[in-house]
Amino acid sequence: MSAIGAHVDSNDPLPAAAANGAAAIQFFLTDPQAWKAPSEHPHADAIRASELTVYIHAPYRINVATTNNRIRVPSRKLLAQHATAAAAIGAKAIIVHGGHLNEGDDPGIGIENWRKTFAYAQNDGGFALPVLIENTAGGTNAMARRFDRLARLWDAVGEFGAGFCLDTCHAHAGGEDLAGIVDRVKAITGRIDLVHANDSRDAFDSGADRHATFGQGQIDPSVIADVCRAAGSDVIVETPAAGQGDDIAYLRASV
Question: How is the chain split into domains, by residue range?
């Protein structure tokens, strides 16, 4: 059975999970805006001993697609470090954004950089656990905003066993219709490993990544539930903390 849960506070995730009635949790291992290798989580033993399904979100700084060597090379290293630490804490997978290029850069370079990321990791024994690439909301030269670009990316990384995380807010804000989206994604990737179930504060194709509690944004909650039901994967809500319990309860009753 799929687990439904929430993105929770990184410092002490278990109480937040209990308060929300979550069967799954997602959190960061470090400041998501920092270039920092993770150390062992202070509650690692308790997290491993819990019955929760655990996901780790990689830092936002990571961008393995970029043509900028000063960002790309450290990004590969940091992703591997966080994947190793995520595996050590008993996580099921690590989620990382698809990344982007500068305006005018050849998207083929970004796609090749993603392929090299998996190839280099494979040469070192592979990532310590599944890496799920997440679709993103903004950027005119993003790797995983538009699904035509996603298809090109998957031609390069699918053979390495890359996983996919579908974010409903990102898809809506990125200009991808949620109606029939699961079938469209699976036609490209063959899989959806996780859904980030989020309402969007902003309009369709706005490019803005701002999540909202179900029913307080631009997406009908029943449409979000339809996506989760069709995907058949675990679900994480990344909505504001105050409403997460209600969002989880809604999905549990609807999916």
Answer: 4-254
Residues 6+ apart with CB under 8 A from 133: 96, 97, 98, 114, 144, 153, 157, 162, 163, 164, 165
Where do we find the tokens 């949620």? 178
pLDDT in tens, 118-159: 999 999 999 999 999 999 999 999 999 999 999 999 999 999
Scan for tokens 């990532």, then name that residue: 127
Euclidean distance between the first and the last CA atom of the chain, given in angstroms as a whole number = 11
For 148-195, what is each residue's pLDDT tens digit? 999 999 999 999 999 999 999 999 999 999 999 999 999 999 999 999
Task: Name the 3-class secondary structure at 52.
Answer: coil
Q: Give me the CATH code for the 4-254 domain, please.
A: 3.20.20.150
**Backbone conformation region of residue 252, classed left if phi is above 0, alpha if psi is from -120 to 50, else beta:** alpha
Query: What is the reported pTM?
Result: 0.97
What sign does the dihedral 193-197-22-42 (CA atoms) show?
Answer: positive
* 237 bridge partner residues: 6
